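sorry for the late reply, my laptop died twice this morning and i had to redo everyting from scratch. anyway the thing you sent over, i finally got around to it. pasting the sequence first so we're on the same page, its 600 residues, then the predicted structure underneath. double check i copied it right bc i was rushing
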Amino acid sequence: MNSLNDIRNFCIIAHVDHGKTTLSDRLLESTDTVVKREMKDQLLDSMDLERERGITIKSHPVSMIYKGNDGQDYRFNLIDTPGHVDFSYEVSRSLAAAEGALLLIDAAQGVEAQTVANAHLAITQDLTIIPVINKIDLPGANLDLCLHQLEEILAIPAEEAVLASAKEGIGIQEILEAVVARVPSPRLADYPQTRVLIFDSVYDSYKGVICYVRMFSGSLKRGDKIIMMSDGVRAEVKEVGIFTPSMKDEKELTSGNSGYVVTNIKAVSDIRIGDTITLEKSPAPEMLPGYQEVRPMVYSGIYPLDTSDYQKLKTSMGKLHLNDAAFTYQAESSVALGFGFRCGFLGLLHMEIIQERIRREYDVDIIATYPSVVYKLETTDHEKFEVDNPVNLPEAESIAVIEEPMITATIHLPSEFVGDILALVMDKRGVCENTETIDETRLMLTSRLPLNEVLVDFNDKLKSMTKGYGSMDYEFSDYQPSKLVKLDILVHGEAVDAFASIVHVDKAETKGRELCKKLKEILPRQMFKIPLQASIDGKVIARETLSAFRKDVTAKCYGGDITRKKKLLEKQKEGKKRMKQIGKVSIPQEAFIDILKNTN
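ok and here's the structure:
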Protein backbone atom coordinates (compact mmCIF):
# COMPACT_ATOMS: atom_id res chain seq x y z
CA MET A 1 0.00 0.00 0.00
CA ASN A 2 3.03 2.33 0.22
CA SER A 3 3.49 2.54 -3.55
CA LEU A 4 2.74 5.96 -5.03
CA ASN A 5 1.13 4.23 -8.03
CA ASP A 6 -1.65 2.96 -5.75
CA ILE A 7 -2.65 6.44 -4.45
CA ARG A 8 -5.26 8.69 -6.07
CA ASN A 9 -5.99 12.22 -4.76
CA PHE A 10 -9.16 13.74 -6.16
CA CYS A 11 -11.96 16.13 -5.25
CA ILE A 12 -15.58 16.63 -6.29
CA ILE A 13 -16.49 20.00 -7.79
CA ALA A 14 -19.81 21.27 -9.10
CA HIS A 15 -22.45 23.98 -8.93
CA VAL A 16 -24.33 24.24 -5.64
CA ASP A 17 -26.91 21.44 -5.10
CA HIS A 18 -25.76 19.17 -7.95
CA GLY A 19 -25.23 16.19 -5.64
CA LYS A 20 -21.58 16.34 -4.51
CA THR A 21 -22.22 15.28 -0.91
CA THR A 22 -24.63 12.50 -1.95
CA LEU A 23 -22.01 11.15 -4.36
CA SER A 24 -19.36 11.17 -1.61
CA ASP A 25 -21.83 9.22 0.61
CA ARG A 26 -22.15 6.54 -2.11
CA LEU A 27 -18.36 6.36 -2.59
CA LEU A 28 -17.90 5.81 1.17
CA GLU A 29 -20.53 3.04 1.06
CA SER A 30 -19.11 1.33 -2.03
CA THR A 31 -15.59 1.19 -0.61
CA ASP A 32 -16.87 -0.06 2.82
CA THR A 33 -15.18 2.94 4.49
CA VAL A 34 -18.29 3.40 6.62
CA VAL A 35 -20.31 0.42 7.81
CA LYS A 36 -24.00 0.40 6.87
CA ARG A 37 -25.31 0.98 10.41
CA GLU A 38 -23.23 4.18 10.79
CA MET A 39 -24.21 5.51 7.39
CA LYS A 40 -26.42 8.59 7.18
CA ASP A 41 -27.20 11.15 4.47
CA GLN A 42 -24.72 14.02 4.08
CA LEU A 43 -22.20 12.12 6.19
CA LEU A 44 -19.36 14.53 5.47
CA ASP A 45 -21.47 17.60 6.31
CA SER A 46 -20.76 17.81 10.01
CA MET A 47 -22.36 21.20 10.77
CA ASP A 48 -26.08 21.54 11.54
CA LEU A 49 -26.13 24.48 9.14
CA GLU A 50 -24.81 22.32 6.30
CA ARG A 51 -27.51 19.72 6.89
CA GLU A 52 -30.33 22.25 7.20
CA ARG A 53 -29.47 24.19 4.07
CA GLY A 54 -28.25 21.23 2.03
CA ILE A 55 -24.99 23.04 1.25
CA THR A 56 -21.35 22.26 1.97
CA ILE A 57 -19.53 25.03 3.80
CA LYS A 58 -16.22 23.37 4.75
CA SER A 59 -14.00 21.06 2.71
CA HIS A 60 -14.16 17.51 4.09
CA PRO A 61 -11.25 15.12 3.45
CA VAL A 62 -11.60 11.35 3.71
CA SER A 63 -9.37 8.33 2.87
CA MET A 64 -10.84 5.16 1.34
CA ILE A 65 -9.42 1.81 0.27
CA TYR A 66 -10.84 0.58 -3.05
CA LYS A 67 -10.26 -2.88 -4.52
CA GLY A 68 -10.05 -2.34 -8.28
CA ASN A 69 -11.26 -4.70 -11.01
CA ASP A 70 -7.58 -5.63 -11.49
CA GLY A 71 -7.53 -7.00 -7.90
CA GLN A 72 -5.21 -4.21 -6.77
CA ASP A 73 -5.92 -2.15 -3.60
CA TYR A 74 -5.93 1.61 -4.16
CA ARG A 75 -5.98 4.39 -1.57
CA PHE A 76 -8.40 7.16 -2.58
CA ASN A 77 -8.01 10.51 -0.84
CA LEU A 78 -11.23 12.45 -1.49
CA ILE A 79 -12.10 16.05 -0.64
CA ASP A 80 -15.79 17.03 -0.79
CA THR A 81 -15.87 20.74 -1.68
CA PRO A 82 -18.44 23.57 -1.39
CA GLY A 83 -20.28 24.68 -4.52
CA HIS A 84 -21.54 28.18 -3.70
CA VAL A 85 -19.86 31.16 -5.38
CA ASP A 86 -18.71 32.55 -1.99
CA PHE A 87 -16.71 29.42 -1.23
CA SER A 88 -14.61 29.25 -4.39
CA TYR A 89 -11.72 29.96 -1.97
CA GLU A 90 -12.32 26.54 -0.35
CA VAL A 91 -12.46 24.94 -3.81
CA SER A 92 -9.09 26.42 -4.86
CA ARG A 93 -7.46 24.97 -1.71
CA SER A 94 -8.93 21.53 -2.39
CA LEU A 95 -7.73 21.64 -5.99
CA ALA A 96 -4.20 22.52 -4.86
CA ALA A 97 -4.19 19.26 -2.85
CA ALA A 98 -5.43 16.94 -5.63
CA GLU A 99 -4.45 15.54 -9.05
CA GLY A 100 -7.94 14.88 -10.37
CA ALA A 101 -11.48 16.21 -10.10
CA LEU A 102 -14.92 14.68 -10.56
CA LEU A 103 -16.91 17.44 -12.27
CA LEU A 104 -20.57 16.87 -11.43
CA ILE A 105 -23.34 18.08 -13.74
CA ASP A 106 -27.02 17.85 -12.84
CA ALA A 107 -28.78 15.96 -15.69
CA ALA A 108 -31.93 18.08 -15.22
CA GLN A 109 -30.21 21.49 -15.02
CA GLY A 110 -27.19 21.13 -17.27
CA VAL A 111 -24.00 23.18 -17.06
CA GLU A 112 -24.45 26.09 -14.60
CA ALA A 113 -22.35 29.18 -13.89
CA GLN A 114 -20.39 27.66 -11.01
CA THR A 115 -19.78 24.46 -13.01
CA VAL A 116 -17.92 26.54 -15.62
CA ALA A 117 -15.97 28.51 -12.97
CA ASN A 118 -14.89 25.36 -11.10
CA ALA A 119 -13.94 23.56 -14.32
CA HIS A 120 -11.70 26.48 -15.34
CA LEU A 121 -10.14 26.54 -11.84
CA ALA A 122 -9.33 22.82 -12.19
CA ILE A 123 -7.96 23.23 -15.73
CA THR A 124 -5.63 26.09 -14.67
CA GLN A 125 -4.24 23.83 -11.91
CA ASP A 126 -3.60 21.05 -14.49
CA LEU A 127 -6.02 18.59 -12.90
CA THR A 128 -7.46 15.61 -14.77
CA ILE A 129 -11.21 16.17 -15.08
CA ILE A 130 -13.69 13.27 -15.06
CA PRO A 131 -17.14 14.61 -16.05
CA VAL A 132 -20.05 12.89 -14.26
CA ILE A 133 -23.64 13.45 -15.40
CA ASN A 134 -25.55 12.97 -12.12
CA LYS A 135 -29.29 12.46 -11.38
CA ILE A 136 -29.93 10.55 -14.63
CA ASP A 137 -32.91 8.84 -12.90
CA LEU A 138 -34.89 12.13 -12.74
CA PRO A 139 -37.91 12.42 -15.05
CA GLY A 140 -36.63 15.81 -16.24
CA ALA A 141 -33.13 14.53 -17.09
CA ASN A 142 -31.89 15.65 -20.52
CA LEU A 143 -28.72 13.67 -21.27
CA ASP A 144 -28.33 14.84 -24.87
CA LEU A 145 -28.41 18.47 -23.76
CA CYS A 146 -25.85 17.88 -20.97
CA LEU A 147 -23.44 16.06 -23.31
CA HIS A 148 -23.84 18.82 -25.92
CA GLN A 149 -23.13 21.52 -23.27
CA LEU A 150 -20.13 19.57 -22.01
CA GLU A 151 -18.53 19.77 -25.46
CA GLU A 152 -19.70 23.27 -26.39
CA ILE A 153 -19.07 25.15 -23.11
CA LEU A 154 -16.31 23.17 -21.39
CA ALA A 155 -14.63 21.63 -24.48
CA ILE A 156 -14.62 18.16 -22.85
CA PRO A 157 -15.40 15.20 -25.19
CA ALA A 158 -18.87 13.74 -24.47
CA GLU A 159 -17.55 10.16 -24.51
CA GLU A 160 -15.47 10.89 -21.38
CA ALA A 161 -18.62 11.46 -19.31
CA VAL A 162 -19.76 8.88 -16.76
CA LEU A 163 -23.57 8.60 -16.36
CA ALA A 164 -24.66 8.19 -12.75
CA SER A 165 -27.29 8.68 -10.09
CA ALA A 166 -25.69 9.14 -6.66
CA LYS A 167 -29.05 8.82 -4.94
CA GLU A 168 -29.89 5.47 -6.58
CA GLY A 169 -26.27 4.20 -6.62
CA ILE A 170 -26.16 3.98 -10.46
CA GLY A 171 -22.72 4.30 -12.10
CA ILE A 172 -20.73 4.40 -8.82
CA GLN A 173 -18.53 1.46 -9.86
CA GLU A 174 -17.79 3.17 -13.20
CA ILE A 175 -16.77 6.37 -11.36
CA LEU A 176 -14.39 4.45 -9.09
CA GLU A 177 -12.81 2.68 -12.05
CA ALA A 178 -12.50 6.00 -13.93
CA VAL A 179 -10.59 7.44 -10.95
CA VAL A 180 -8.17 4.48 -11.04
CA ALA A 181 -7.69 4.68 -14.81
CA ARG A 182 -7.62 8.44 -15.41
CA VAL A 183 -6.39 10.24 -12.27
CA PRO A 184 -2.55 10.27 -12.25
CA SER A 185 -0.52 9.14 -9.26
CA PRO A 186 0.69 11.90 -6.86
CA ARG A 187 2.78 14.70 -8.41
CA LEU A 188 5.92 16.42 -7.05
CA ALA A 189 6.66 13.30 -4.94
CA ASP A 190 10.32 13.04 -6.05
CA TYR A 191 11.33 16.37 -4.45
CA PRO A 192 14.35 15.70 -2.17
CA GLN A 193 13.03 17.54 0.94
CA THR A 194 9.75 17.15 2.84
CA ARG A 195 7.00 19.52 1.62
CA VAL A 196 3.48 19.44 3.04
CA LEU A 197 0.58 21.70 2.00
CA ILE A 198 -1.87 22.93 4.68
CA PHE A 199 -5.16 23.13 2.79
CA ASP A 200 -7.44 23.63 5.79
CA SER A 201 -7.44 23.72 9.59
CA VAL A 202 -9.86 23.37 12.48
CA TYR A 203 -9.66 24.20 16.15
CA ASP A 204 -10.13 21.44 18.70
CA SER A 205 -10.52 22.38 22.36
CA TYR A 206 -8.44 19.34 23.44
CA LYS A 207 -5.81 19.05 20.72
CA GLY A 208 -5.57 22.71 19.70
CA VAL A 209 -4.90 23.46 16.03
CA ILE A 210 -5.45 20.51 13.67
CA CYS A 211 -3.98 21.06 10.19
CA TYR A 212 -5.55 19.26 7.22
CA VAL A 213 -2.56 18.45 5.02
CA ARG A 214 -1.54 16.94 1.71
CA MET A 215 1.88 15.27 1.75
CA PHE A 216 3.69 16.13 -1.47
CA SER A 217 7.16 14.75 -0.67
CA GLY A 218 8.96 13.18 2.26
CA SER A 219 7.20 11.98 5.43
CA LEU A 220 6.00 13.21 8.84
CA LYS A 221 5.80 11.31 12.12
CA ARG A 222 5.29 12.06 15.81
CA GLY A 223 8.24 13.95 17.34
CA ASP A 224 9.42 15.56 14.07
CA LYS A 225 10.54 19.20 14.36
CA ILE A 226 8.90 21.27 11.61
CA ILE A 227 8.95 24.82 10.18
CA MET A 228 6.06 26.81 8.66
CA MET A 229 7.73 28.25 5.57
CA SER A 230 5.73 31.49 5.21
CA ASP A 231 6.60 32.93 8.63
CA GLY A 232 9.33 30.64 10.00
CA VAL A 233 7.29 29.41 12.99
CA ARG A 234 8.81 26.24 14.49
CA ALA A 235 6.80 23.43 16.07
CA GLU A 236 6.83 19.77 17.06
CA VAL A 237 4.50 17.14 15.59
CA LYS A 238 2.31 15.60 18.32
CA GLU A 239 0.13 13.34 16.15
CA VAL A 240 -0.42 12.44 12.49
CA GLY A 241 -3.24 10.49 10.91
CA ILE A 242 -5.88 10.06 8.21
CA PHE A 243 -9.65 10.60 7.98
CA THR A 244 -11.86 7.50 7.64
CA PRO A 245 -13.95 9.86 7.82
CA SER A 246 -13.34 10.19 11.60
CA MET A 247 -9.75 10.95 12.67
CA LYS A 248 -7.54 7.85 12.89
CA ASP A 249 -3.94 8.28 14.05
CA GLU A 250 -1.10 6.64 12.11
CA LYS A 251 2.58 6.06 12.82
CA GLU A 252 3.63 8.09 9.79
CA LEU A 253 2.22 10.12 6.89
CA THR A 254 4.08 9.42 3.65
CA SER A 255 4.29 11.30 0.36
CA GLY A 256 1.19 11.36 -1.83
CA ASN A 257 -1.29 10.98 1.04
CA SER A 258 -3.75 13.37 2.68
CA GLY A 259 -4.41 13.50 6.40
CA TYR A 260 -4.03 15.65 9.48
CA VAL A 261 -1.18 16.92 11.65
CA VAL A 262 -1.48 18.01 15.28
CA THR A 263 1.37 20.20 16.55
CA ASN A 264 2.18 21.97 19.81
CA ILE A 265 1.05 25.27 18.23
CA LYS A 266 -1.81 26.75 20.21
CA ALA A 267 -1.88 30.30 18.76
CA VAL A 268 -4.40 30.79 15.99
CA SER A 269 -2.26 33.36 14.16
CA ASP A 270 0.69 30.97 13.69
CA ILE A 271 -1.11 28.72 11.19
CA ARG A 272 -1.69 30.04 7.68
CA ILE A 273 -3.85 28.17 5.23
CA GLY A 274 -1.90 27.44 2.05
CA ASP A 275 1.42 27.42 3.93
CA THR A 276 4.06 24.74 3.31
CA ILE A 277 5.41 22.63 6.21
CA THR A 278 8.99 21.38 5.96
CA LEU A 279 11.37 19.55 8.34
CA GLU A 280 13.69 21.64 10.52
CA LYS A 281 16.70 19.32 10.01
CA SER A 282 16.57 19.53 6.17
CA PRO A 283 14.30 22.44 5.14
CA ALA A 284 13.04 22.79 1.57
CA PRO A 285 14.46 25.85 -0.26
CA GLU A 286 11.13 26.82 -1.84
CA MET A 287 7.42 26.59 -0.99
CA LEU A 288 4.88 24.56 -2.99
CA PRO A 289 3.71 26.38 -6.13
CA GLY A 290 0.29 27.39 -7.37
CA TYR A 291 -1.40 28.52 -4.19
CA GLN A 292 -2.98 31.95 -3.84
CA GLU A 293 -4.58 33.48 -0.78
CA VAL A 294 -7.87 35.20 -1.49
CA ARG A 295 -8.72 38.49 0.22
CA PRO A 296 -12.17 39.25 1.66
CA MET A 297 -14.55 41.08 -0.69
CA VAL A 298 -17.23 42.22 1.75
CA TYR A 299 -16.90 43.97 5.12
CA SER A 300 -19.41 44.44 7.90
CA GLY A 301 -19.35 45.46 11.56
CA ILE A 302 -20.43 42.79 14.07
CA TYR A 303 -21.36 43.89 17.60
CA PRO A 304 -22.69 42.00 20.63
CA LEU A 305 -26.27 42.89 21.61
CA ASP A 306 -25.26 42.70 25.23
CA THR A 307 -22.00 44.62 25.82
CA SER A 308 -20.96 42.08 28.48
CA ASP A 309 -20.69 39.47 25.68
CA TYR A 310 -17.77 41.33 24.02
CA GLN A 311 -15.07 38.99 25.35
CA LYS A 312 -17.14 35.93 24.40
CA LEU A 313 -17.56 37.35 20.88
CA LYS A 314 -13.81 38.02 20.63
CA THR A 315 -13.03 34.39 21.56
CA SER A 316 -15.55 33.01 19.04
CA MET A 317 -14.08 35.26 16.29
CA GLY A 318 -10.62 33.82 16.99
CA LYS A 319 -11.86 30.24 16.73
CA LEU A 320 -13.89 30.95 13.57
CA HIS A 321 -10.88 32.60 11.95
CA LEU A 322 -8.89 29.41 12.53
CA ASN A 323 -11.66 27.21 11.12
CA ASP A 324 -12.16 29.56 8.18
CA ALA A 325 -9.06 31.36 6.95
CA ALA A 326 -11.01 33.56 4.53
CA PHE A 327 -12.77 35.27 7.45
CA THR A 328 -10.87 38.25 8.93
CA TYR A 329 -11.67 40.55 11.84
CA GLN A 330 -10.30 43.50 13.79
CA ALA A 331 -11.63 45.41 16.80
CA GLU A 332 -13.56 48.66 16.30
CA SER A 333 -15.99 50.77 18.31
CA SER A 334 -19.14 52.67 17.43
CA VAL A 335 -20.84 55.48 19.37
CA ALA A 336 -24.21 53.83 18.80
CA LEU A 337 -23.33 50.15 19.15
CA GLY A 338 -20.34 50.14 21.53
CA PHE A 339 -17.36 47.79 21.08
CA GLY A 340 -17.36 45.23 18.26
CA PHE A 341 -15.39 44.03 15.24
CA ARG A 342 -14.92 44.97 11.61
CA CYS A 343 -15.13 41.65 9.76
CA GLY A 344 -14.18 40.63 6.22
CA PHE A 345 -16.07 37.96 4.24
CA LEU A 346 -15.91 36.36 0.79
CA GLY A 347 -19.50 37.27 -0.01
CA LEU A 348 -22.96 37.67 1.42
CA LEU A 349 -23.69 33.96 2.01
CA HIS A 350 -20.32 33.66 3.75
CA MET A 351 -21.30 36.61 5.97
CA GLU A 352 -24.68 35.02 6.77
CA ILE A 353 -23.06 31.67 7.62
CA ILE A 354 -20.45 33.25 9.94
CA GLN A 355 -23.13 35.26 11.78
CA GLU A 356 -25.30 32.16 12.17
CA ARG A 357 -22.34 30.14 13.47
CA ILE A 358 -21.54 32.83 16.08
CA ARG A 359 -25.16 32.71 17.28
CA ARG A 360 -25.42 28.91 17.34
CA GLU A 361 -22.00 27.54 18.16
CA TYR A 362 -20.90 30.27 20.57
CA ASP A 363 -24.30 31.43 21.85
CA VAL A 364 -23.70 35.17 21.33
CA ASP A 365 -26.52 37.49 20.21
CA ILE A 366 -25.10 39.87 17.60
CA ILE A 367 -26.06 42.74 15.31
CA ALA A 368 -24.38 43.45 11.96
CA THR A 369 -24.03 46.80 10.18
CA TYR A 370 -24.48 47.37 6.42
CA PRO A 371 -22.21 45.23 4.27
CA SER A 372 -19.58 47.35 2.52
CA VAL A 373 -16.69 46.77 0.10
CA VAL A 374 -13.10 48.08 -0.01
CA TYR A 375 -12.77 51.42 -1.78
CA LYS A 376 -9.48 52.94 -2.97
CA LEU A 377 -9.02 56.66 -2.39
CA GLU A 378 -6.59 59.30 -3.57
CA THR A 379 -6.70 62.62 -1.73
CA THR A 380 -5.97 66.06 -3.19
CA ASP A 381 -2.53 65.76 -1.49
CA HIS A 382 -1.86 62.63 -3.63
CA GLU A 383 -2.07 60.35 -0.62
CA LYS A 384 -3.49 56.88 -1.37
CA PHE A 385 -5.31 54.56 1.06
CA GLU A 386 -8.15 52.04 1.33
CA VAL A 387 -11.48 52.44 3.13
CA ASP A 388 -13.82 49.58 4.11
CA ASN A 389 -15.88 51.51 6.67
CA PRO A 390 -18.05 54.52 5.68
CA VAL A 391 -17.17 56.22 8.99
CA ASN A 392 -13.51 56.50 7.86
CA LEU A 393 -14.32 58.27 4.56
CA PRO A 394 -12.75 61.77 4.62
CA GLU A 395 -14.55 65.02 3.66
CA ALA A 396 -15.59 65.19 -0.01
CA GLU A 397 -13.43 68.25 -0.79
CA SER A 398 -10.25 66.38 0.22
CA ILE A 399 -10.96 63.39 -2.11
CA ALA A 400 -9.48 63.63 -5.63
CA VAL A 401 -10.51 60.15 -6.84
CA ILE A 402 -12.52 57.34 -5.27
CA GLU A 403 -12.45 53.91 -6.94
CA GLU A 404 -14.80 50.99 -6.33
CA PRO A 405 -14.21 47.25 -6.99
CA MET A 406 -15.78 45.88 -10.17
CA ILE A 407 -16.68 42.26 -10.88
CA THR A 408 -17.18 40.24 -14.05
CA ALA A 409 -20.40 38.28 -13.58
CA THR A 410 -21.33 35.25 -15.69
CA ILE A 411 -25.10 34.77 -15.63
CA HIS A 412 -26.74 31.59 -17.00
CA LEU A 413 -30.48 31.97 -17.62
CA PRO A 414 -33.40 30.75 -19.76
CA SER A 415 -33.61 32.96 -22.88
CA GLU A 416 -37.19 34.14 -22.16
CA PHE A 417 -35.99 36.13 -19.12
CA VAL A 418 -33.14 37.96 -20.87
CA GLY A 419 -35.01 41.31 -21.01
CA ASP A 420 -35.73 41.34 -17.27
CA ILE A 421 -32.16 40.42 -16.37
CA LEU A 422 -30.66 43.06 -18.68
CA ALA A 423 -32.89 45.64 -16.96
CA LEU A 424 -31.69 44.35 -13.55
CA VAL A 425 -28.04 44.64 -14.63
CA MET A 426 -28.62 48.22 -15.82
CA ASP A 427 -30.46 49.11 -12.61
CA LYS A 428 -27.39 47.92 -10.69
CA ARG A 429 -25.14 50.25 -12.76
CA GLY A 430 -23.81 47.31 -14.76
CA VAL A 431 -22.98 46.82 -18.44
CA CYS A 432 -23.65 43.65 -20.43
CA GLU A 433 -20.44 42.94 -22.35
CA ASN A 434 -21.28 39.69 -24.09
CA THR A 435 -24.25 37.43 -24.80
CA GLU A 436 -23.66 33.81 -25.77
CA THR A 437 -26.25 31.20 -26.74
CA ILE A 438 -25.68 27.91 -24.91
CA ASP A 439 -28.51 26.02 -26.61
CA GLU A 440 -32.06 26.66 -27.86
CA THR A 441 -33.36 27.54 -24.38
CA ARG A 442 -30.43 29.02 -22.41
CA LEU A 443 -28.18 32.06 -22.64
CA MET A 444 -24.97 33.14 -20.95
CA LEU A 445 -24.54 36.84 -20.20
CA THR A 446 -21.17 38.30 -19.29
CA SER A 447 -21.65 41.54 -17.38
CA ARG A 448 -19.45 44.06 -15.61
CA LEU A 449 -20.95 45.31 -12.34
CA PRO A 450 -19.87 47.21 -9.23
CA LEU A 451 -19.46 44.71 -6.36
CA ASN A 452 -21.29 47.08 -4.00
CA GLU A 453 -24.49 46.77 -6.09
CA VAL A 454 -24.42 42.96 -6.11
CA LEU A 455 -24.03 42.62 -2.34
CA VAL A 456 -27.50 42.79 -0.92
CA ASP A 457 -30.23 41.52 -3.19
CA PHE A 458 -28.87 40.83 -6.69
CA ASN A 459 -28.87 37.05 -6.38
CA ASP A 460 -32.35 37.02 -4.81
CA LYS A 461 -33.75 39.17 -7.63
CA LEU A 462 -32.01 37.02 -10.25
CA LYS A 463 -33.58 33.86 -8.80
CA SER A 464 -37.09 35.34 -8.50
CA MET A 465 -37.03 36.90 -12.00
CA THR A 466 -35.92 33.62 -13.62
CA LYS A 467 -38.23 31.41 -11.47
CA GLY A 468 -35.17 29.84 -9.86
CA TYR A 469 -33.50 28.80 -13.12
CA GLY A 470 -30.91 31.60 -13.29
CA SER A 471 -27.46 31.14 -11.78
CA MET A 472 -24.54 33.47 -11.35
CA ASP A 473 -20.81 33.23 -10.80
CA TYR A 474 -18.54 36.24 -10.39
CA GLU A 475 -14.88 37.05 -10.12
CA PHE A 476 -13.09 40.24 -9.14
CA SER A 477 -12.13 42.34 -12.16
CA ASP A 478 -10.46 45.63 -11.18
CA TYR A 479 -11.05 49.04 -9.61
CA GLN A 480 -12.85 51.81 -11.46
CA PRO A 481 -13.27 55.54 -10.59
CA SER A 482 -16.85 56.34 -9.62
CA LYS A 483 -19.02 59.16 -8.23
CA LEU A 484 -19.46 57.85 -4.72
CA VAL A 485 -20.59 59.78 -1.66
CA LYS A 486 -21.02 59.15 2.04
CA LEU A 487 -24.68 59.09 3.05
CA ASP A 488 -25.20 60.17 6.66
CA ILE A 489 -28.40 59.67 8.62
CA LEU A 490 -29.10 62.39 11.18
CA VAL A 491 -31.45 61.89 14.10
CA HIS A 492 -32.31 65.20 15.78
CA GLY A 493 -29.34 66.81 14.01
CA GLU A 494 -26.77 64.21 15.10
CA ALA A 495 -25.19 61.74 12.66
CA VAL A 496 -25.59 58.06 13.66
CA ASP A 497 -22.44 56.22 12.54
CA ALA A 498 -24.11 52.77 12.48
CA PHE A 499 -26.45 53.94 9.65
CA ALA A 500 -23.73 55.59 7.48
CA SER A 501 -23.10 54.06 4.05
CA ILE A 502 -21.18 54.78 0.83
CA VAL A 503 -23.51 55.03 -2.17
CA HIS A 504 -23.44 56.21 -5.78
CA VAL A 505 -24.53 59.82 -6.13
CA ASP A 506 -27.47 58.85 -8.44
CA LYS A 507 -28.91 56.46 -5.83
CA ALA A 508 -28.23 58.52 -2.71
CA GLU A 509 -31.56 60.35 -2.60
CA THR A 510 -33.66 57.19 -3.06
CA LYS A 511 -31.71 55.33 -0.39
CA GLY A 512 -31.85 58.34 1.96
CA ARG A 513 -35.66 58.53 1.63
CA GLU A 514 -36.03 54.78 2.26
CA LEU A 515 -33.90 54.92 5.42
CA CYS A 516 -35.70 57.98 6.82
CA LYS A 517 -39.08 56.30 6.20
CA LYS A 518 -37.90 53.12 7.92
CA LEU A 519 -36.58 55.08 10.90
CA LYS A 520 -39.88 56.92 11.22
CA GLU A 521 -41.71 53.58 11.49
CA ILE A 522 -39.23 52.06 13.93
CA LEU A 523 -38.11 54.83 16.31
CA PRO A 524 -40.21 55.42 19.43
CA ARG A 525 -41.90 58.85 19.66
CA GLN A 526 -40.65 61.43 22.16
CA MET A 527 -42.29 64.43 23.86
CA PHE A 528 -41.01 66.66 21.05
CA LYS A 529 -40.79 66.44 17.24
CA ILE A 530 -37.67 64.74 15.88
CA PRO A 531 -36.32 65.49 12.40
CA LEU A 532 -34.90 62.41 10.63
CA GLN A 533 -32.60 63.51 7.82
CA ALA A 534 -30.38 61.98 5.16
CA SER A 535 -27.46 64.20 4.22
CA ILE A 536 -24.45 64.25 1.90
CA ASP A 537 -21.59 66.55 2.96
CA GLY A 538 -23.87 68.56 5.20
CA LYS A 539 -26.58 69.02 2.55
CA VAL A 540 -29.91 67.45 3.52
CA ILE A 541 -31.39 65.39 0.65
CA ALA A 542 -34.31 63.67 2.42
CA ARG A 543 -36.32 64.27 5.57
CA GLU A 544 -39.08 62.74 7.64
CA THR A 545 -40.46 64.09 10.91
CA LEU A 546 -41.26 61.85 13.84
CA SER A 547 -44.25 63.53 15.47
CA ALA A 548 -44.35 64.14 19.21
CA PHE A 549 -46.63 62.72 21.85
CA ARG A 550 -49.27 65.32 22.52
CA LYS A 551 -50.97 65.60 25.88
CA ASP A 552 -54.49 67.04 25.62
CA VAL A 553 -53.99 70.07 27.89
CA THR A 554 -57.45 71.43 27.00
CA ALA A 555 -59.27 68.40 28.43
CA LYS A 556 -60.06 70.17 31.68
CA CYS A 557 -61.67 73.15 29.86
CA TYR A 558 -65.37 72.64 29.42
CA GLY A 559 -67.23 75.48 27.72
CA GLY A 560 -65.87 78.98 28.41
CA ASP A 561 -63.86 81.29 26.18
CA ILE A 562 -61.70 79.97 23.28
CA THR A 563 -58.82 82.24 24.36
CA ARG A 564 -58.41 80.09 27.48
CA LYS A 565 -57.77 77.01 25.32
CA LYS A 566 -55.39 78.94 23.03
CA LYS A 567 -53.40 80.16 26.03
CA LEU A 568 -52.96 76.58 27.29
CA LEU A 569 -51.87 75.33 23.81
CA GLU A 570 -49.35 78.20 23.45
CA LYS A 571 -47.91 77.37 26.85
CA GLN A 572 -47.54 73.71 25.79
CA LYS A 573 -45.83 74.77 22.54
CA GLU A 574 -43.28 76.86 24.48
CA GLY A 575 -42.53 73.91 26.76
CA LYS A 576 -42.00 71.58 23.76
CA LYS A 577 -39.66 74.14 22.16
CA ARG A 578 -37.53 74.28 25.33
CA MET A 579 -37.56 70.46 25.56
CA LYS A 580 -36.44 70.18 21.92
CA GLN A 581 -33.38 72.35 22.65
CA ILE A 582 -32.22 70.37 25.63
CA GLY A 583 -33.71 66.97 24.67
CA LYS A 584 -31.44 64.12 23.58
CA VAL A 585 -32.70 61.23 21.50
CA SER A 586 -31.38 57.90 22.70
CA ILE A 587 -32.05 55.27 20.06
CA PRO A 588 -32.95 51.94 21.65
CA GLN A 589 -30.99 48.84 20.65
CA GLU A 590 -34.15 47.26 19.16
CA ALA A 591 -34.43 50.13 16.68
CA PHE A 592 -30.87 49.48 15.43
CA ILE A 593 -31.62 45.80 15.07
CA ASP A 594 -34.88 46.45 13.21
CA ILE A 595 -33.44 48.92 10.72
CA LEU A 596 -30.26 46.94 10.08
CA LYS A 597 -32.30 43.76 9.57
CA ASN A 598 -34.69 45.52 7.20
CA THR A 599 -32.00 47.05 5.03
CA ASN A 600 -29.42 44.24 4.96
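Residues 36-57 have pLDDT under 50 and may be disordered.
thats about all i looked at so far, will dig more tmrw
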